[in-house]
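FORM 12-B: Structure-to-Sequence Request
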């Protein structure tokens, strides 16, 4: 396992991190046994992972609570990342949210503390609490409170998630932002247009979520009709494919599944699974700090282990980039996987 140092800190994180949203179970993930989740954490640690990501919004704190239980006696050697919701950016609410997470995680400090989403509506230097909310919170007040939490030792670094170029520039002019957590994979390369560049310029690491495009890059689906609604609601698919879709896009299903077929052939030619090949491509991209893998049990952790020490050939990565270029062009600059009216700014 490779480890990367977070800029301007003494924190080192594993190149692959465990994303623990599945620990929440519920409508998004279905039944999840807490012991399976704890076993996944332990198996991750056994294989070199020291970085664990969660959020209070994952099951109303359940993900945090399960992770806290799993990591309690191993806290010092591991790095915890959690988030403050966009609706809690007022200083008073932010502090309460931080305390809620600290309590859930059974810890005195959070290593990497993200603003989960920027406001979906922004104006100048203002961040709104939530869409259409008339109560405004000045971003300076939000950052001031984050800095206080930092000075008190309750958080060790400030990060963001799902921040577009303008929002990222705005907050990074006020404080050092150590990371921006973003959707990034071979089928979702929108950040390559401008966000990746500004993150590198500001020395802010990119933490990748959805690295296998919700299973599309594992090769498990051969036709759009096989894809569950929770996946086919993305902008890669027709607006009519899923009743959960909120976008109006026509999708790029024909291009997508032609590309999947070609990637399957490429993986067979190189005697490697499509998933490991795709993760190998991703970890060589510029500016990557860590890649989140969502695993619900020991078996799912071990499916990803071959990627930890896999060093892809440059020629293979170039072929993957070429094969996915048409999808990159279709997706365009909007990193929002779900809405054509982007929540990014």
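FORM 12-B RESPONSE
SEQUENCE OUT:
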């Amino acid at each position: 396992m490779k480890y990367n140092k977070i800029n301007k800190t003494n924190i080192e994180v594993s190149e692959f991190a465990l994303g623990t949203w599945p620990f929440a179970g519920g409508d998004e993930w279905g039944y999840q046994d807490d012991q399976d989740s704890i076993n996944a954490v332990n198996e991750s640690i056994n294989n070199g992972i020291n970085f664990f990501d969660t959020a209070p919004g994952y099951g109303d704190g359940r993900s945090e609570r399960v992770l806290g239980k799993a990591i309690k006696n191993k806290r010092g050697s591991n790095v915890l990342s959690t988030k403050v919701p966009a609706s809690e950016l007022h200083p008073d609410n932010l502090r309460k949210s931080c305390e809620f997470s600290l309590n859930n995680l059974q810890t005195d400090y959070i290593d990497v503390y993200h603003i989960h989403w920027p406001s979906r509506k922004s104006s100048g230097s203002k961040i709104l609490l939530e869409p259409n909310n008339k109560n405004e919170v000045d971003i300076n007040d939000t950052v001031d409170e984050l800095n206080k939490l930092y000075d008190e030792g309750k958080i060790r670094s400030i990060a963001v998630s799902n921040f577009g170029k303008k929002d990222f520039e705005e907050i990074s002019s006020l404080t050092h932002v150590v990371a921006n957590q973003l959707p990034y994979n071979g089928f979702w390369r929108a950040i390559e247009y401008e966000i990746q560049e500004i993150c590198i310029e500001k020395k802010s690491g990119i933490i990748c979520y959805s690295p296998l495009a919700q299973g599309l890059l594992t090769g498990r689906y051969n036709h759009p009709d096989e894809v569950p609604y929770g996946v086919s609601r993305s902008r890669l698919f027709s607006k009519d494919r899923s009743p959960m879709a909120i976008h109006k896009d026509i999708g790029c299903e024909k291009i997508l599944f032609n590309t999947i077929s070609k990637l399957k052939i490429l993986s067979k030619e190189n005697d490697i699974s499509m998933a490991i090949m795709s993760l190998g491509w991703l970890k060589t991209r510029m500016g990557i700090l860590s890649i989140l893998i969502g695993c619900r049990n020991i078996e799912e952790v071990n499916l990803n282990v071959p990627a930890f020490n896999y060093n892809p050939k440059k020629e293979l990565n170039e072929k993957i980039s070429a094969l996915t270029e048409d999808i990159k062009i279709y997706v365009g600059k909007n990193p929002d996987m779900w809405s054509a009216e982007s929540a990014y700014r």
